[in-house]
Amino acid sequence: MIGLHRSPAFGFSQEFAEYRAYNEGDDPRFIDWNVFARTERMYIKRFLGDTNSHLMILLDTSASMGFGGPPVSKLRYGKFLAASLAFLAARQHDAVGCMIFDEEVRDYRPPSSRAGKLQGVLHCIDGAEATTGTKFDKPFQKFSEQISRRGLVAVISDFYCDTETLLASVSPLAWQGQDVVLFQVLDQQELDPEFDSNVLLEDLETGEAIEVAPQFMREAYPQRIRDHIDALQKAAMSIGADHVLVNTSDSLDQALRNYLLFRQRRK
Amino acid sequence: MALLAPLFLLGALAIGLPFWLHRLKTQSSVRQPFSSAMLLESSEQQVHLQKKLKYFVLLALRVALLVLLVLAFAKPVFYHSPGVLAGEVSGTHLILVDTSVSMSRAGVFSQAIGAARRAIDAVPNDALLQVLSADGSLHLASDLSGEKQAHRAALSTLSVSALHLDLGDMMKSVDRLAESLPAPVTLHVISDFQASAMPVRFSDLVSSRIPELIPYVVGTGTPFNWSVEYVRETATGLDVALSGYGDRERVADVELVLNGAVIESRGLSVTGPQVIQFAKPEYAEGDNQLAIRIITDDDLQADNERFHIIEKTPPIEVPLITYASEGLPVTYLSAALESASGDAFVVQTLVAGQFDLRVLSRYTWAVVDDISSVDAELSAALIDFLQGGGSVLAFAGQRAFELETLPVSGHRHSPTNVDIDGNQFLSVGQVDSGHPLLSQTEGWHNVNVSRSMPVEVLDGDKVLIRLENNEPFLIERRFGEGRLLLVLGGLNNRWNDFPVHPVFVSFIIETARYLSGTHDISKMHTAGDTLSLAQVGSVSGQVVDPDGNRVLSLADTTREQQIKLNKPGFYTVYTTEKEVSIAVNIDALESDLQTISQEVLDRWQDATAGQDPAVAVAGSRVPDQEPVPTELWHWLLLLLALVIIGESVLGNTYLNPRRAEQG
Question: A9, B8, B288, B510: which has the fewest Cβ within 10 Å?
């Protein structure tokens, strides 16, 4: 199974990880003869390598993430995504942690691969509620102070923010050597809104209400959102981060598969 | 255009409401949450532009709705000319058809209608026409117009009446009508032109506004007619006078019909006027309806029956209260009352102090020959009698001058006590001859008064006669349900000579009828007369005509009425007090069928045509072309209904998208 981080290979280390049945071609130095003596079957010892990573999931729970549906809101989709990533990483014995944030850090679980810590991460993700506004600088600053090891940082948000502001928050993580993936979760109604008549749209975070015409929402707005997505992508690329657009109307497994294939090709 | 109710235009201020409401709706009421407004752009201008376009029609409809509503209430009228200008017509032609009784002769009225049709056809097409009928009064049968068909149709609505036509009265009415008609006015008269219809003065036939008269004589020939001229009661029976017009001997049956039953019939050969005597029939109590019927084939059947009312009522006892039964006042009063025809009254002399006062309640009214002598007990009894509905005729005797206040009436001496020099006399100055009591009396100015009894007139008094010094002489005063007639003078020939004048007898008899209620309705009338039905309490009465039909509606029976008696025969009048029969006969003048001579007709035409043209044209002036108003509110309401429908439909279409969204 291909892992999430860049070096999925198991290497020599003092920390035993697991046994695997011997296959023709495996290095016989790693055959555990004690096990053979007991079972008359050959097993290879696998050890945690220096390239084992950790996954930090940063989940945006600002009010804008509460938009969307049916069937699910962006936050709920993001939770599913975060949980899925956490599970996959934990299976690979990667340390998983999470941080729930909006304008502030609402909850934090440091990365750990110990048994039972996944439950804690999942519980933290599950308890996230859409709250107030979005600010990346403060939470990300706190995060960068907390984390020391390099690993994978998956930021799950709708990224309704200024690109420059985002870059300023994310760049330090990239400079730290973190592998940053920006999962931009958007609802279909945000990508391609449909309104039959003039409507007063109220910003879930600021409460600002703007009356828009259906023609604008049909023609100009989709271009704007596309432009914003493109700008985000470019900004991510500029700091070596990945940008993944996730449409809540797509099935979760399809979205993950697409990303993982993308990661594999990048390898 | 004008507005009949312009104040309603103030409602136009309500037009501001839809404008205000539409301005309020600057934002869509539908709010939807959105993730972020970061990438949104306000489309206010677009929205407003769209709204302006989208809601403009709706706003316009709502404004139009209010404007139409306001205008409809303001009642606009559009004035336009009647369509015929004076300069565009060649004049006016009046087609007047005689519909008096004499026109009911066989074939005569149909001849008249035929002549009227020919007259209408002969009128120029650019002239105005109007059809009239005349009997006792002038009637408009059609409206003034050039539509000949309408006027021909109006002829079919005409019918002969039971009234008499007087040509003089007819021309006066036509003259008044012609004042408002376009000149010149030509009068076409279709009639049998009875000689008896001629007015007393020939000049009454000529109208300054009618420059041309065209007579159409119908019913020519030598008509023969019989009629009953009068019926008179005698001591032994009835005298019936027949009048004949024409010189042919005729055989006729004369029937005497009493209360609907033929009690005697006699065959006659009549050649001229004669009086037939019938034995006195047995009359029933009350009003007897007597009809004399001639059965013959004369030319005018309508006057072959004469109606008469014979009253058989027991004499009404009249108490005469006196302190001197042998005095002159008793003599004068008794003689006057008992001289009334038909022995209508019998006097019961009651000497004051010698009769039980309670007997007064048996009488309808009483006479007091000297009210100044009445003592307190009798005064109280008389006041009770009056307030109980009884009536009193009282005279103020000489003792009245010694009293400050008259008994019973309560009149006081007025401050000015005029004492006339014995050699000077006052005459009667004013007489209210319109009062039913006095309308049949005359000769008051012959009465001489040497001393009057000046009294202060009280509230509620009606002074019927005043002397020439303005002092009251006869006062009528209501006492509850009853009434007091007070003569301020005695009957002993000392202060006046009233009892020796003929007016005294007629006054006493009329007073007796007035106070006993036998006076109020006259029983013999001529067709065309008016019967006055006075209101008593909350009702006046009901009248049933000779055909058995009620004349008045239920509402009319509560009001005083003037009823036209247009049909010959017996009417029954029901009042709150009694039931009275009335006999109505055709005017005897209609029985003489002799026509006006051609010479007189020619003279009439010449007199009409010989007027000064300038006067004739000036008299029949061009009428002011009063504009004809046409009200427009009906159209406005129709338009309003359409606007309401449009506004509802349009408003609903704007509502539907929001309902879909909310669904």
Answer: A9
B51 → chain A, closest CA residue: A198
Domain that holds residue B577: 524-585
Find the closest chain B residue to A190 by CA distance: B35
Tokens found for residue B546: 């000779």
Q: In terms of DSSP bridges, do strands B426-431 and B448-449 run parallel, antiparallel, or are they unpaired? A: antiparallel
User: Which of A62, A64, A188, A198 is best to mutate for the B interface (most B CBs within 10 A)?
Assistant: A198
Q: How many CB atoms lie within 10 A of CB B648?
A: 11
**B610 touching A, CB under 8 A?**
no
Q: Which two tokens stand for residue B157?
A: 């609505």
Sheet holding B76-80, edge to edge: B2-3, B76-80, B628-631
**Does A77 touch chain B if contact means CB atoms closer than 8 Å?**
no
Q: Does A72 touch chain B (CB under 8 A)?
A: no
Same domain, B420 and B535: no
A212 Cβ under 8 Å from any chain B Cβ = yes
Q: How far is A56 from chain B (nearest CA, A)?
A: 25
Q: Are residues B353 and B486 in the same domain?
A: yes
Please check whether residues B338 and B483 belong to one and the same domain. Answer: yes
CATH number where B206 lies = 3.40.50.410
Same domain, B614 and B638: no
Into how many domains does chain B fold? 4
Instruction: Map residue B542 onto helix, strand or coil.
Output: strand
Q: Looking at the partner chain, which of B29, B35, B47 has a beta carbon nearest the beta carbon of A158?
A: B35
ipTM tops 0.85: no
pLDDT tens for chain A, 267 residues: list them.
Answer: 334 444 444 444 445 556 778 877 777 877 888 888 888 888 877 655 444 578 899 999 999 999 987 788 999 999 999 999 998 888 877 889 999 998 889 999 888 877 788 899 999 999 998 888 888 888 888 888 877 777 889 999 999 988 888 888 888 888 888 889 999 999 998 998 888 888 888 998 888 888 888 888 888 899 999 999 999 999 998 888 889 999 998 888 888 887 877 777 665
